[in-house]
Backbone:
DNA sequence: CGATTAAATGTTAGCGCTAACATTTTGTAG
DNA sequence: CTACAAAATGTTAGCGCTAACATTTAATCG
C-alpha cells in the first residue's frame, strides 16, 4: 500500500547529467526561457540571462544538441562531400568551408567518396538522416537517383569545383577553359608536339574536361592532341614513370601538359636527374599551383585556382540563404590564373 | 459538433517525410520491429526483414539519426580533434581513422584547434553535446579544466601522436627519441656543428620534444646544440629563408636538422640553387618522410612515422572497446624509421 | 504431444529539447 | 493613471526513435 509500483515501472538509463529543466529550476525560470537564452540571447532580459548563466555554471550543464535538433528538425550540420583527401585541393577547400561555417556555428560532416558516385549517393542519404541545414558536394555529375533526390531537397545546396547547370547553387571554375588556357600558352610558346598526360580521368572527370579544352586549342592550330593515361592515383614517382613512358612512346615530344602538379613535379625532377634540359629538351606544365612546384628550379608552369576561396564562397552562399536573403548570383566563377614558370 | 478543435490544437511542422511507424504500418509490424531490423537485422526473422525492406523502399523512408541518438543517448559520432589541416600528417591520420570508423558505421566530427588548447577545450565541450560514442584528440597536454573533464569521461578516449601518460588510451611515437635518433645519425656521420631549426615550437610542442632529444644526443658528444626558431607556419619559402639566416648566423654550420620536411626541402632546393653542395657544404635533414622529400635529388634524410596507421590503430582501439573487449595494450608505440637519403 | 525454453515481436513510456500558442509583464502614449 | 501594444516569459505537446519490460510464437525435448 505504501508503494506505487505502476508509477515506477520503467526507468530509462537517463544520463545523470543535468538538463535544461535543472538549469531552469536553479534559475527560477521555465525551461523554454533557458532554451531562448541559449538560442536567441537577445530575446531574454539581461537580468534573466545572467541568472541563467549562473545556473548553467552551477549545475555544470552541457547542452544536448541531439535533443535540440530533434525538436527543431534541424541540426546545424552541413555535410561536405569530397572525392578525396589525398589531394590537397580538397583539403584546402574544406578549410575554407570550415573557417566560415565555424563562425556561424555550423559543423561540417565530412564525406569522402573516393571518386565513386555510388558512394556519394550513399553518403548523402546517410547524412540526410541528420537533418542537415544545408549540403555541399563536389561536381555537377551525380547518379541519376541522387540528382532526383537533390532536386527535391528543400535547403541550400552548393555544388563546388566546376561550373555549369547546378541544381541550386554553384561555386567553381571552368576546367575546360583552364585546359584550353594552358594549351594556348604552350602553343604560343612555339611547342608543336604536345602530350597531355595524367591519371584517373574516369572518376575525376574534371581532368578530362581540361583535356577537352587542351585538345580543342591544339586542333585549332592543326596539331595532334595525344593523350596518355594511368589508372593509379597521382604521385611523384608516377610523374617520373610517366615521363619515361612518354619519351618512349613519343620520342619527339616537345612538351607535356600534366593533369596535376604532383605528377608534373615528379616528371620535372626526374627529367633533371636524367640530364634533360627543361624547357629546351622538354617543357613541362601542371595544374593546381601547389607550393612545391613553385619551389623547384625551374619553377613549374601551372594553372592555379583559389581553392580556399571556393570553400569560403560556397559557405557564404549558404549562410546568405540561411539568413533569408538571396545571394547575388547562384553561380560563382572563381576563375583561375596561369602561372608561367621556367619549365615551359 | 463535427470537429474536435481541442484535439487539433497544436501542430508541429512535422517534416512530411515518412517515419518508422509509416514503415511499420506498411509492413504490418510494430515500429520497434522495424527499428530492430535496422539496428540488429539478425534479431528479426528473415521473412519479416524482407517485408520491412520492401516497405522501406515503398514509402521512401529515410532514417532519422537524430531521433535515434536521442532515444539511445548515443550518436555514432566520434569527434577527432587535430591541431591543423595544413599539415599533411594530420590529414593522413584522419584518413586512417575514417577508413576504419566507416566500416563500423561511425562518423567523424572534425575539429581543428589551430594549435590552441583553449580551442581544443571549446571544441570538445561542444562535441560532447552530440553524445559521441568515443573521442580522439591530439597530444597528451590539455588545459587543466579539459583534463579534468576528460578524466571523468566514461567512453573510449584516444590521445594520438605522442607517447606517455594517457588519460585512457594512446597511440603515437616518442618525439624525443625521434629527435635523438636523427641527431645520432648526424653525429655518427661526422658532423659536429649541427643546428636545429624550425617553426611554431610553442604550440606544436612535439617539435620541441624532438629538439630535446636532439640536444641530449649532441651534449653526449660534447657538442653545442644551437636552435633557430620562426613563428610563422612551415612553408617551402620559409625553408629557403631559414637556410640563408642560418648560414648568416652560423657561417661554419655543417648540418641543419629541420623540424619538418617542408622546410628541409625548401632549404635543400634553395641550397642547390645557391650553388651549395649537399651534403659536402651543408647537410640537411627533416622530419615526417613526405613524398616530395624523397623525390628530390639528393633525397632528403628524414624520419618517417606510419601516419595512416596511427589513425587506423587509434580507431581499432576504440572499436575493440566498443565491442566490449579490452585492447591488448592501452598505449601503442607505432615507432618511426630513419630514412637516410643523400642529403646527409 | 504437452511442457519448457528460446526466439521473435509487441506495448509503453520517455530521451531533452523546441514550436506553437497563451499569458503575464513592461513600456508608452494620451 | 488607464489603455494598449510590445516584449518577456510560461504552458503544453510533441519531434521520431529506442530501452525496458511484456507477450506471443516457434523450437526443443522427454
Residues:
Amino acid at each position: 500500500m505504501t508503494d506505487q509500483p505502476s508509477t515506477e515501472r520503467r526507468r530509462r538509463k537517463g544520463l545523470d547529467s543535468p538538463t535544461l529543466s535543472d538549469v531552469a529550476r536553479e534559475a527560477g525560470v521555465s525551461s523554454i526561457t533557458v532554451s531562448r537564452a541559449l538560442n536567441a540571447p537577445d530575446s531574454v532580459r539581461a537580468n534573466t540571462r545572467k541568472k541563467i548563466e549562473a545556473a548553467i555554471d552551477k549545475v555544470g550543464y552541457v547542452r544536448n544538441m541531439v535533443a535540440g535538433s530533434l525538436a527543431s528538425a534541424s541540426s546545424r550540420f552541413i555535410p561536405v562531400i569530397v572525392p578525396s583527401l589525398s589531394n590537397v585541393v580538397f583539403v584546402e577547400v574544406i578549410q575554407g568551408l570550415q573557417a566560415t561555417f565555424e563562425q556561424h556555428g555550423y559543423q561540417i560532416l565530412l564525406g569522402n567518396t573516393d571518386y565513386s558516385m555510388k558512394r556519394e549517393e550513399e553518403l548523402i542519404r546517410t547524412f540526410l538522416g541528420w537533418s542537415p541545414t544545408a549540403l555541399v558536394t563536389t561536381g555537377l555529375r551525380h547518379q541519376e537517383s541522387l540528382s532526383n533526390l537533390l532536386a527535391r531537397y528543400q535547403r541550400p545546396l552548393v555544388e563546388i569545383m566546376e561550373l555549369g547547370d547546378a541544381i541550386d547553387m554553384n561555386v567553381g571554375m571552368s576546367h575546360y577553359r583552364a585546359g584550353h588556357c594552358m594549351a594556348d600558352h604552350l602553343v604560343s610558346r612555339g611547342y608543336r608536339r604536345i602530350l597531355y598526360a595524367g591519371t584517373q580521368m574516369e572518376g575525376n572527370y574534371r581532368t578530362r574536361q581540361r583535356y577537352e579544352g587542351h585538345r580543342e586549342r591544339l586542333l585549332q592550330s592543326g596539331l595532334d592532341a595525344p593523350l596518355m593515361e594511368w589508372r593509379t592515383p597521382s604521385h611523384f614517382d608516377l610523374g617520373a614513370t610517366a615521363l619515361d613512358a612518354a619519351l618512349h612512346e613519343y620520342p619527339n615530344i616537345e612538351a607535356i601538359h600534366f593533369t596535376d602538379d604532383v605528377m608534373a613535379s615528379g616528371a620535372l625532377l626526374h627529367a633533371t636527374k636524367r640530364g634533360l634540359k627543361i624547357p629546351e629538351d622538354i617543357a613541362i606544365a601542371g595544374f593546381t599551383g601547389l607550393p612545391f612546384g613553385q619551389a623547384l628550379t625551374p619553377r613549374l608552369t601551372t594553372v592555379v585556382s583559389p581553392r580556399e576561396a571556393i570553400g569560403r564562397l560556397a559557405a557564404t552562399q549558404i549562410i546568405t540563404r540561411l539568413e533569408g536573403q538571396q545571394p547575388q548570383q547562384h553561380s560563382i566563377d572563381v576563375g583561375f590564373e596561369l602561372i608561367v614558370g621556367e619549365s615551359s
